[in-house]
Amino acid sequence: MLACGAGAALSHVSAAALWGIRQSPRIEVTAPTGRRGPRGVVVHRAPLRDDERTTHRGIPTTTVRRTLLDLSAVLRPDDLRSALRQAEQLRLTDPLSLGDLVERYPRRPGLAAIKAPLEETSIGARMVRSELEERFQAFLLNAGLPLPRTNQRVEGYEVDCVWPAQRLIVELDGHASHAPTYAFEDDRARDRRLEAAGWHVIRITWRQLHEEPQLVEADLRRLLS
User: Fold this and answer.
1) 204 pLDDT exceeds 60?
2) Which of 22, 61, 114, 138 could be stapled to 10 by a disulfide with Cβ–Cβ 3.0 to 4.6 Å?
3) 103 & 138 share domain
């Protein structure tokens, strides 16, 4: 980073690797101006605003959302969706949203690739807990599956849906990416404790319920049989 000059930040697939959302052996840097990068380093010449760069693990880097925007121009759609899902699972957040960046750079390459998953994410973000629960209940009724008890306490924890006879718990995740990192850790610790107590815990997202209902139904039928 020092060799690339003032204002340089790790970016693109290298920033994605630093954030843990994609692996890459390449070193890519975005720098506003200045000297050429050292051998083996790909340097992108572009300005970075203050809200598009940060420091992570002691390394100047593009923010998560700016990194995803850069990836949209170089990754295949499936790989881009995978990076978006990984960022969501890790609960990586920024004050600036992807929507803000799309509005800021309306002519950047890759916008078409990112607008579809961005629209899906917006739908998921608007779906509050009660709405997702209602859709899940309707899904169960249409599939002819037994209805659970909802918002019950199990082993001291409040769970979304529980089938006591089958020792099955379903947690409904609306949109995870706006939640802080500690919530991710707390959820996994709770799941581990419930599993240790003999309960089987699965998580179903809005996207899975919307895009993969057949797979969700098949899994629940096996677990409830």
Assistant:
1) yes
2) 61
3) no
Domain that includes residue 208, residue range: 129-224
Residue entry with tokens 């718990």:
169
Q: What is the pLDDT of residues 122-181, one digit of tens each?
A: 544 444 456 788 788 889 988 999 989 888 889 988 888 999 999 999 998 765 434 444
Angle between helix 213-224 and helix 129-143 axes, rounded to 10 deg = 70
Helix (H/G/I), strand (E/B), else coil: 159: strand
- Taking the C-alpha atoms of residue 67 and residue 91, their distance in angstroms, rounded to an integer, is 15
Computed over every residue of the chain, the mean pLDDT equals: 84
Question: Are residue 219 and residue 169 in the same domain, yes or no?
Answer: yes
Phi, psi angle pair for 30, to nearest 5°: -110, 130
The number of helix segments (H) and strand segments (E) in the chain equals 9, 9
Based on the fold, state whether residues 19 and 107 are members of the same structural domain: yes
Residues 20 and 112 both lie in one domain:
yes
How confident is the model at residue 169, as a pLDDT? 96
CA atoms within 13 A on the CB side of 156: 5
Q: What is the pTM of this model?
A: 0.57
* Among 115, 76, 79, 89, CA closest to 123: 115
> Are 20 and 117 in a shared domain?
yes
Q: Kindly give the interhelix angle for 77-89 and 111-126, rounded to the nearest 10 degrees.
A: 40
On whether both 6 and 92 belong to a single domain, the answer is yes
What is the distance between the alpha carbons of residues 189 and 171, in angstroms, rounded to a whole number? 14
